[in-house]
Specification:
By secondary structure, the protein is mainly alpha-helical. The protein has 17 helices and three strands.
């Protein structure tokens, strides 16, 4: 049974608000109609497994739900841009969604669009219909749509939202393109090393036995590791899987996520890259929310949810509480000691001039340029560094393999003399 919130006029013509339990929206409407009430609105309640402070089980279920129902950011960007264009051209939201569903290639997202169209026919607003799909539309997206509906500028907000998502997607693509090469090399290197220990070293072990001579310590260690790898393939795989699962559960906990995110931000070069990417997203999100007319406290709460880093989230949470106590926005963020001085100066100037949305957009562009600069330097340095590491490790293992043969050759040469 689900909880539904309703607003109706009773038989006496009085406005009545409340909640009721029903298995579906249609059943809730039937119950209210049978009571003789005139329905003003009925929507799904806020109560549920994924509201408020989540337990570990809720976090796991929410993660699985988002994986199962989510769509790529690229699809969402295209949808938002098309919806803004159609709505600006005079089409109704319902008609726009129907047209987009008809042309959508992703079966998963087409189903979402069809459900959105159905819910709007039942009387839901666009933001209310989107709230029923948390795996596709996050709280920021819904808040901006709701702000556009209230202010009557939905087409403008959708257009700004599409531009915002395009920039976020572009930043994410650049960051992943910079990190994908070293990750690929590391995985490839792990496979090569595993292959050497599993296939190559055992082939030489039989040859070493025929030497009937003492083996160098590095070679003995390599043979021992090789035997351990070959004899414990199942347990090694199980151990790796257990470690990954344990890390996943640890990362879902508040303390674990904060610790991991703190370590990531302190990694040389990589941490700087991710920090500038987060600050760009933070400033751009703040800017578009201010432009849409979202109240400052709601803006700070929404920004806290989209930065996707526990260290920055905690800083935003503390800043929000300090603003409630009377601090300025810039003063609150400065007190958190997490945000860069350039961003703080622009926020402070924006508060004084009333141009915070424009100055935050400039701050976002500034940090985006820093991201591009770091990516350029990282790309130029990472390739030769990874090649040197890979060549050094593989070369070292090959030397260990052939070291007994070299020693035997030297011994034979000395004996002949």
């Amino acid at each position: 049974m689900s909880v539904f919130q309703y607003i109706v006029k009773d038989v006496k013509g009085l406005r009545v608000e409340g909640t009721l339990k029903a298995s579906s929206l249609d059943e809730a409407i039937d119950k209210l109609t049978k009571e003789g009430s005139i329905i003003i609105s009925v929507k799904a309640g806020k109560e549920g497994a994924f509201s408020g402070k989540l337990s570990m089980f809720d976090k796991i279920m929410l993660t699985i739900y988002k994986i199962r129902t989510g769509v790529s950011l690229k699809i969402l960007v295209f949808f938002t841009r098309q919806l803004a264009t159609m709505f600006s051209a005079g089409l109704t939201i319902e008609k726009s969604l129907t047209n987009l569903a008809r042309e959508e290639k992703s079966k998963r997202f087409r189903k979402v669009l069809m459900q959105l169209s159905t819910d709007i026919k039942k009387g839901y607003s666009l933001s209310e219909a989107m709230e029923l799909h948390p795996g596709v539309f996050n709280s920021l997206y819904i808040a901006l749509v709701k702000a556009g509906e209230v202010s009557g500028t939905l087409h403008t907000v959708l257009d700004e939202l599409a531009t915002y998502l395009e920039k976020v997607e572009d930043t994410r693509r650049k960051v992943w393109s910079a990190l994908s090469y070293p990750l690929f090399i590391l995985v490839f290197l792990a496979v090569v090393v595993w292959g050497l220990f599993y296939f190559i070293i055992p082939m030489f072990a039989g040859v070493y036995e025929s030497f009937d001579a003492d083996l160098p310590a590095p070679t003995i260690a390599a043979i021992a590791i090789s035997n351990a790898v070959r004899e414990n393939v199942f347990f090694t795989g199980l151990a790796i899987l257990t470690f990954l699962m344990a890390f996943f559960l640890f990362y879902l906990s508040e303390r674990g996520k904060y610790l991991v995110d703190s370590v990531i931000l302190k990694i040389p070069v990589i941490g700087n890259l991710l920090e500038n990417s987060i600050m760009s997203k933070f400033a751009r999100t703040f800017s578009i929310l201010m432009y849409a007319g979202v109240p400052i406290m709601d803006t700070m709460e929404l920004v806290e949810k989209v930065v996707q880093n526990s260290v920055i989230e905690k800083a935003c949470e503390k800043a929000r509480s300090w603003v409630k106590e009377g601090f300025t926005v810039a003063g609150a963020f400065k007190k958190s000691k997490v945000f860069p001085s350039t961003l703080l100066q622009l926020i402070s100037t924006g508060e004084e001039t009333g141009e915070m949305d424009n100055l935050l957009k400039k701050a976002a562009d500034f940090h985006q340029k820093l991201v591009d600069s770091v990516i350029e330097r990282l790309t130029s340095l990472i390739e030769p560094m990874m090649i040197i590491v890979m060549a050094g490790l593989v070369g070292y293992i090959i030397i260990i393999i052939y070291l007994p043969i070299f020693n035997l050759g030297l011994a034979i040469s000395s004996g002949m003399k």
